[in-house]
Amino acid sequence: MTTLSRSLILLIAGALAVMLVGCSGGNGPTLPVPPDGGGSDTATTTVTPSLAGIEPGALPDTLTKGDFSVTIDGSAASVTKVERSAASGLVLCFIIDTTGSMSGTLNGVSSSIQAFADTFTGRDVYFSAVEYGDDIPGDSGTSRTAFTPSTDLTGFKTWVDGLEAYGGGDGPENHLDAMMYAKNHFSWPSGLARHFIILTDVTSHQKDDGSGYADYNVEDVLSAFKGWAIVHAVSPDLSSSWPSIDTVSVKGNDGVQTLVNIYDYYTDARELADGGPADKRTHSGTGGKWVEMPGSGSVDLTTLGITEAVTEAYTVTFKKPSSMTHGVLVIKADWTGGSATWDFGDTTF
Q1: How far, in Å, CA of 29 to CA of 280, rounded?
Q2: Is residue 139 in some structural domain?
Q3: What's the pLDDT tens digit per position in 90-109?
């Protein structure tokens, strides 16, 4: 037998062995993790039952990093740490509309935020916030301010208590840019679950609406926040004004992904939370919850279920190349009797 024949036989035998292993039940072969674990940098993502499309309580509370796997653009990445979010702490960021139309609402909003913050007394929680109109902190000539992540509950409540309603002028404001300002400018504690809460009485401008106010469209913010933070919204019920689900189509990595944009140009804060009204929803947003903004602004923020969401969530830390700013992120968990998959699509790290 020639050396070439032996090599060919060994190659075929090896291929058959791989095929047999891959077809022997379970979840099939595991992608090999690169020697560097997938990179020299790390990223953290929060996973919840709702984002995987499974029932609340379906995730066992005993999962470890060995039960999770991560791929970025189809390549395996090393999982370095997994914790129940309740154990790893929490970051809350409030995105607050402080324009003139909120003048009759802002006092109620302020009191509601402070009362909600008090429910976390004694827990490892960082508080942060951005106030916005058409303008955001950092814009030329603006006096809008921000509160960077801090465990100083008293300082946070003092900041919230000092908010005043002014300006605006047109209908939509600019919660998209306010959210991206927080994401890009704050120093975020590592390894903690992040929950954003938008509080507004109107829709938001988008980059393509012709106003010149916004630098982002809703799909940009969804890409930046999916897997990075869970967004909740307290805003008007605009269900009757949402267009049909095939109004706007946005090309995604896996073909065409349909996204709903209210009024074609402006966007409802709810889309970033749960994806919109159930009968017009084409995606699950970031896995957050929406509640209607009352005229008084007084809202029980515990109804957002953040405490419960944190209890059931896991924070997953994994390796990635330091130069990688985005990629198609998929996280899987397998345990005896069950499994879950979180397909975040193209995600900004």
Answers
A1: 38
A2: yes
A3: 899 999 999 999 999 999 99
